Amino acid sequence: MKHQILVLAVTACLSTGLSAQDKTSVPQLGKASIDEVVAAMTVREKATLLVGDHEFDYYVNGTVKDEIPDIAGTSAAIPRVGIPVTYYTDGPAGVNIAPTRKGTDKTFYCTAFPVATMLASTWNPDLVLKVGEAIGNEALEYGCDIVLAPAINLHRNPLCGRNFEYYSEDPVLIGKTASAMITGIQSNGVGTSLKHFAANNQETFRRENDSRISQRALRELYLRGFEIAVRESHPWTVMSSYNLINGTAASENYKLLTTILRDEWGFNGFVMTDWMRLKIRDIAKQIHAGNEMMMPGYPEQIDDIVAAVEEGRLSEADLDLAVKHMLEVIVRTPRFKGYKFSNDPDLAAHAEITRTAANEGVILLKNEAGTLPLSDKGKKIALFGYGSYDLFAGGVGSGEVNAAKIVNIDEGLRNYGFSLNKELAAIYEGADGEIGISPAYAAMRAADSDIAIVTLRRTAGEYVDRRAIEGDFYLTKLEKDMLKNVSEAFRARGKKVVVILNTGGVIETSSWKEYADAILLPWQPGVEGGNTITDILTGKVNPSGKLTMTWPVEYMDIPSSKNFPYDFEGNSWKAGPVRDSFDPAKRNIGFTEYEEGIWVGYRYFTTYKIPVSFPFGFGLSYTSFAYSAPKVVAGKKGSFTATVTVTNTGKVSGKEVVELYVSAPEGGLEKPVMELKAFGKTGELAPGASETVTLTFTTDDLASFDESQNCWATDAGTYSIHFASSSDDIRESVPLKMRKRSVRTVLTKLD
Ligand code: GLC
Fold first, then answer.
1. What pLDDT, on a 0 to 100 scale, did the predictor assign at position 54?
2. 489-515 pLDDT, tens per residue?
3. What is the pLDDT of residue 102?
4. What separation in Å is there between the alpha carbon of 258 and the centre of ligand 1?
5. Ligand 1: which residues within 6 Å by Cβ?
């Protein structure tokens, strides 16, 4: 083996025209300073490093083609100065690489963790951190250096195709959840890529669309989650988004990528583009703006950079700074450190982490007269709905994960010991999609079963937005008839109906929820889905998840509803929108007006008292909780500590999420009636047990963005600090007096 390495090393030198002796005189990364290495590199070498090296057939400087098949991208090696290849893998729900490889019968399956929305639904950053640790470990042991996650674009509209990969409609919940994920992944010594920066809130023509947003909505909503995550968890990289913001492409936007990201927030990694695949950006502008790396990378981009320097369109100082930022990250990578990865992560342990995390992300939306839990194993279950036998464990696109096996709902129920109606199972096993259930057939099943469970499923994904039509946001007639027929048949015999929503995003529920005695929302729960759902159905685990976005009555109730391509038919599932239907002058296609401003989600529905089907922050438990002894104490330098005691007043143990909302004093800027500023979760509380939950926030956290002064401002006056179980269930409130207005100006505007 040694002999081979020697030959390889000598060959590498010779291939760069250097003798072994010369190589020692060339500064080497990790031995010489980064500045010395940069100074020793040629312009072409610098350009090569800034261009991803995976999408094209010829491989620059030694990237081993297909060392990790289907990995999202790599950076090029520059052996002459000791720069290795580094490997970047998707995604937010786990490592996304091919499960098999030529020449070996070893497999490379990964763990499909719960989708991002479900992780956020736990309202438990400590748990999210554990998932991040597992994802980071899987990336490390499969030889990857950077995980292209978390994805944290705000849920502006429920029809965005990638909302399952994103967390919430609220920036504080987004930022805290993202920070936990980043910290968890990076604890393994691999990096993350916080994405898609910024305001990529639709998939339709995502590369060309111009997000037109007020400065206040940008600062308070669309940038705020990124700001919290960058300041609190220091992601190694950020991925700029495809879209434009107020007319400037995010990846060409100096104010966004340098003034705000670096100068205001202190980011110290490097920025990569999203996977452009279209030559519609100016590479000199991108590098000058602070977008160091071009992904997935094309050979001609190397020539473009060299030409830009030669023609003076790109200064060599900007080029050097970009290379320096990249090298400062590369020296931290496992590849640079020569980590010997095993290709054998502990998938069994990670499956357990998935199940535990998913258990806390399941949301109980309805539970009339104690329909759940199904305490008695002997119950005969009539299991309806195609999704009961073919679970959507995750969404579609780069956020997919190749898992070896998904536990479906029927399997999870059988694992527990329930007997499922065999005839019904056979019908679904033979189907290739949803099937109609007639009143007569429902009556037959009501006669020979104790309870009905009906699963409704939806999936969505990258490239394509969902639509406000039957079969997507709305149920199909077939689905509604199934629910109605099953409900009427089982209720005629005094038997109950449980509906399970296996979805990555919001659907309409108001028109049919009276057919269900209980409604469970397990989202897209990952590999252990069927076991997770059974854990909750049986009460083995008491549900403690809460909604991270509003579930409206109608799609058009949503403030952004008309400023979204909710009815665009030009999408094709895999390839995204049909190119020639692009029209830069067309609303919601060439540009999208964020006309609603800050009025997104509960900020809008609570302030304007618009009825919803299920509110932000809502989730039931099998037990109940009382809040007492609310207190807010001022600390040093504008910090505050809020405490409240939570007592389990029910009969079974459980966990409670405490949501802290703040109502600002009247006057000045128009503000939402309340905004989430902190949250926390109790441990498992036994019946009668209490826990004091401690939450912190600062004066700056209470600020609103004042466009007229281009500053954050916390007005003087009396604030109300609310301790709530949901945005529509405030339990305790205390006043908090701010003696004087405090102001923090920002450095720029994205106009
Ligand atoms: C995709 C996605 C991004 C992903 C990248 C690599 O287009 O927008 O989230 O990380 O390409 O697959």
1. 62
2. 999 999 999 999 999 999 999 999 999
3. 87
4. 22
5. 72, 90, 148, 151, 195, 274-275, 398
Gap between the Cα atoms of 104 and 156, Å rounded? 45
Dist CA 168 CA 595 (whole Å) = 19
Kindly report the pTM of this predicted structure.
0.96
Position 289: which residue type? Answer: A
Label residue 440 exposed, middle or buried (CB < 10 Å: 0-12, 13-18, 19+). Answer: exposed
Can you state the angle between helices 439-448 and 477-492, rounded to 10 degrees? Answer: 40
Pocket test for ligand 1, best of 115, 275, 465, 574 (most atoms within 8 A of CB): 275
* Structure-block tokens of residue 87: 């490997």
Q: Percentage of residues in the chain with pLDDT exceeding 70? A: 94
Q: Which atom of ligand 1 is nearest to the CA of 242?
A: 8
pLDDT of 303 higher than 50: yes
SS3 657: strand
- Predicted pLDDT at 8: 40
- List the 742-745 sheet strands across, edge first: 704-706, 711-714, 742-745
Tell me what pLDDT residue 5 has: 37
Kindly report the protein residue whose alpha carbon is nearest to atom 4 of ligand 1. Answer: 398
d(CA 52, CA 62): 13
Residue to mutate, 68, 89, 148, ligand 1, most ligand atoms under 8 Å from C-beta: 148
Structure tokens belonging to residue 337: 């450190």
Three-class HEC string of 134-145: HHHHHHHHCCCC
The answer to whether residue 16 scores a pLDDT higher than 80 is no
- pLDDT, tens digit (0-9, with 9 covering 90-100), for 360-406: 999 999 999 999 999 777 789 999 999 999 999 999 999 999 999 99
Helices assigned H by DSSP within 417-528: 422-429, 439-448, 477-492
Domains and CATH numbers, the chain: 2-337 (3.20.20.300), 357-552 (3.40.50.1700), 556-611 (no CATH), 625-745 (2.60.40.10)
**CA-based torsion, 155, 160, 163, 166: positive or negative:** negative
Q: What is the mean pLDDT of residues 660-675?
A: 95
